[in-house]
Amino acid sequence: MPFVDHGGCRLRYEIDGNPQGPALLFSNSLGTTVQLWEPQLPALSPYFRIIRYDTRGHGASDAPQGPYSVDTLGLDAIAVLDAVAVDHAHVCGLSLGGLTAMWLAVHAPGRVQSVVLASTAARIGTTTMWDERIAQVHASGVESLADAAMGRWFTDEFRKAHPDVVAVHRRMLSETPAIGYAACCAAIRDADLRSEIETITTPALIIAGHHDPVTPPADADDMRARIPAARVALLDGAHIINAEQAAAFNAQLSAFFTEQRSWHG
Fold first, then answer.
1. 20 to 30 A from 149, CA-CA: which of 70, 132, 244, 263?
2. What DSSP letter does each residue of 232-246 carry, written as one string?
3. Topology of the domain comprising 3-259
4. Nearest to 15 by CA among 6, 23, 4
5. What residues does each domain of the chain span?
6. Per-residue confidence of the chain (265 residues) as pLDDT tens digits?
């Protein structure tokens, strides 16, 4: 389990896949870890050098006192790329990780070969909503959010059919340190990249879930209107779309990367 130190935080990362393939950096959502991306490994590992890391405040990464900012999270991602000697990579982020991916495409375009923005938005939620979430976590812990979160993360049908998958994600959320979770909530609360993403020139794929109450399809349409080289794929699922619709999600990534002639390096 390798680590890199950046900005007073020790960040855990993992490397999988084809060491000779193009680099693909995954950035996880709020309340998850590198485990979020396991549904993608079988399909993409033969072709890509896959780099996953725990966002600060999550998993085996440190959880320093917050609040954090999307700038800090973006610089963390660059530190991970530097640690594994990757000059540029395809970047895929979900929800909070999508904000990080957007930040990279805006502020470090030379490091980003293409960007996939999954279940995310340039502005997620409202200040009041995130302040209330932070207050709840401080008062009652992250576990108090878990049941409601599963209702947002997965459709009713998926939760009934795949309780094992839901249990894995519920555990990831429940085990997230309260300090780190709240600090990342503050980063989302304070992030508004709507005007900045208009400067993104890298190819962009936006993946949204038809039934996502957190970042609904309207948010995907807004990003598509702002990012010059973007397109949207809508899948039949809720927020954690890469798990609920893993096969379709992987197919979208594969097709997107193939178009850029990067699939085989």
1. 70
2. EEEESS-S-HHHHTH
3. Rossmann fold (3.40.50)
4. 23
5. 3-259
6. 799 999 999 999 999 999 999 999 999 999 999 999 999 999 999 999 999 999 999 999 999 999 999 999 999 999 999 999 999 999 999 999 999 999 999 999 999 999 999 999 999 999 999 999 999 999 999 999 999 999 999 999 999 999 999 999 999 999 999 999 999 999 999 999 999 999 999 999 999 999 999 999 999 999 999 999 899 999 999 999 999 999 999 999 999 988 876 444 4
